[in-house]
Amino acid sequence: MMFNSNSAHSSGSKYSQVRPYSDYSDSSSDDDHIEDDFIQREIRQQQLMMRQQDEGLEMLGQSAERLSRISMGIHEELGQQNKMLNEMEEDLDTATENLSLVTRKTKELIQKSGGKRNFIIIVVLSIVMIILFFLVIYT
């Protein structure tokens, strides 16, 4: 009783679950299609990322160009200001020399005119004369 009539039925159902070779080839083409779709999506995604990176690099390049122009402008401005500072320094040196000369001449004049005592008398009399002048005008 090894071969039972039920066994034929059950063996038939056992083999009915196995797919024919043609089903495997269709599944393989579906897998290939899915894989191709995946690859195409990945390629598109990478192309999009490359475009975004290119745009980012373009913006970075434009920023670098603007910074270059600004830095060149700053360089020119600093050059002009350095010239002005050098001229101002020369003028200050000349003014310092002139002030030293005037101070030395004033000291010599004070010495010739009788010293500090006469100079103080002259300054005080000049202040008194200015005050009297204002009093005469405003009264």
Query: Structural class of the secondary structure composition?
Result: mainly alpha
Biggest sheet, open or closed, and with what strands and sense? Answer: none
Annotation field: number of helices:
3
- Taken in chain order, the helices and strands follow as HHH
| Strand proportion | under 5%
Helix content: over 70%
Brief summary of the model shown:
The chain has 139 residues and is mostly helical. Helix content is 91%, strand content 0%. The chain has helices at residues 5-16, 21-112, 116-138.
Which keywords apply here?
mainly alpha; disordered N terminus; 139 residues
Structure report:
With 139 residues, the chain is an all-alpha fold. The chain has three helices and no strands. The longest helix is centred in the middle third of the chain and has 92 residues. The N and C termini lie far apart (156 Å).
Strands, helices and their partners?
Layout lengths: L4 H12 L4 H92 L3 H23 L1
